[in-house]
Amino acid sequence: MLAITLSAGCSSKSADAPPPTIAPAHAADSPPVVGALPGTVVPAPAGAIAATVDTATRALAVLSVAAPDRATVTVLTPGLPAASIALPGGATAMSADGDGRVAVATRGGYFLVDLARRTVTRMPVAGQEGTDFTAIAQRSDGRLVLGSADGSVYTLSSDTAVGASVKIFARVDGIVTQGDIAVVLDRGQTSVTSLDADGTGAEHALRAGDGATTMAADPNGRVLVTDTRGGELLVYGVDPLMLRQRYPVPDAPYGVTASADGKNAGLAWVAQTASNTVVGYDLATGIPVEKVRYRTVQQPNTVAFDDATGTLYVVSGSGRGVQMITDAGTAR
C-alpha cells in the first residue's frame, strides 16, 4: 500500500500544478440480462449516476443526466407513482440531508430539491460562478462540502458562503462524510484523502488500489471503496484514515453501499458490472464474507439501501430501470 504524504496545513495555494495521474477506471459494459430477476423492477430514466434514500420521506431519489445541461431527479416513494423533477441545468452528484431534501451539484453551486413538494431551488456558491462542481456531501454539523473538476474542495460556512477551501487533487470525483470528517476520492490519482475538520488541509491520504471508482459511507462508521481496475473491495476507517480490509471482488466491481448493523446484518453491497450481480459481504469478522448475491438489472452502476424497510435498490445506468429487493440480506 502506497501512502501519499500531504501536509495537514495545505491550502489552496499549496499546489500550483496538478498532481500526476493515471487514466481513471470505469464500470464494465454489462451483458444483456436473461430470465426473471429477484424483486421488482420499475422504470427509470437512462443516464442514472447517483441514488440515495431519504430517511424522512422513505423515498429513493435517482439522479439521471441526459445531456451536459439537462438532468432530472426521479423520486420513487413506496405506494406512490414515480415523480420526475427536471433540474434547470446540468448535474454531477447528489447528497441527501435526511430531512426530505437532496442537494445536487452543478456548475456554480448546487440545486436544493424538496422531494415531497417537488420544488427546486438553485443555490449559487459565492465567488464560484464558473466552478464545475463534481461532488457533494453533508457533514454531521450540517455544512456542505463540494468538490470540483479542478481538484478543489470547498467547505461551506452557510448555504452559499465558502468557509474554507483546499486545492490538492487532480479532480474530485467523490466525497463522503463520517461525522465532520470528509473523505475525498480522486480517480486519476486512485487515492482517498481525509480532510481536517476546518476543511483547510489533508489529515491523511492513501493510495486506493489500481483504479478506484466509487465510494460510500458505511452507517457503521467505515468508508467503502471499489477498486474496479484491481478487482477489490477496500474498507477504510476514518479516524485516522486507514485501510482496514481489502478483498478480491471479480467482474469489475463498481457501485457500492452498505446496510446498518442490526436486522440487516450490516452488509457491504458491491455491484459487479461485468456479470450483472450484486453481492452482500459481512465485514464484522475482519475479512469480508459473502452472505448473499442477487442477479440484477443490466449495468448495475448504482446501489442504495433503505435500512428502515430492508430494501436494496439497484439502479441501471443503461435505462433498464430500478430493481427493488425487499428483505435483502436475510435468510431465504
Can you walk through the features of this model?
With 332 residues, this protein is mostly beta strands. It has a domain at 223-332: Lipocalin. The chain has strands at 40-42, 48-54, 59-67, 70-76, 83-87, 93-96, 101-106, 109-114, 119-124, 133-138, 144-148, 152-156, 162-167, 174-178, 181-186, 191-195, 202-207, 212-217, 223-227, 232-238, 241-248, 253-258, 267-272, 277-282, 289-295, 302-306, 311-315, 322-325. The strands form 7 sheets. A 4-stranded antiparallel sheet has the order 1-28-27-26, with no helix packed on it. The chain starts with 39 loop residues before the first strand and ends in a 7-residue tail after the last strand. The model is unreliable at 1-15 (pLDDT under 50).
Summarize the structure.
This protein has a domain at 223-332: Lipocalin. It is 0% helix and 49% strand. The protein is built from no helices and 28 strands.
Q: Which CATH class of the domain at 223-332 is shown?
A: Mainly Beta
The CATH architecture name of the domain at 223-332 reads Beta Barrel
How does the overall form come out from the CA principal axes? globular
Please report the total strand number as a whole number.
28
| SSE run | EEEEEEEEEEEEEEEEEEEEEEEEEEEE
What is the rounded distance between the termini? 38 Å
Mean pLDDT: 93
Q: What is the radius of gyration? A: 18 Å
CATH topology of the domain at 223-332: Lipocalin
Tally of alpha and pi helices: 0
Largest sheet: 4 strands, antiparallel
Overall SS class: mainly beta
Major sheet: arrangement of strands: 1-28-27-26
How much helix is in the residues? under 10%
Q: What are the segments in which pLDDT stays under 50 over at least 5 consecutive residues? A: 1-15
Give the amount of beta strand, in percent.
over 45%
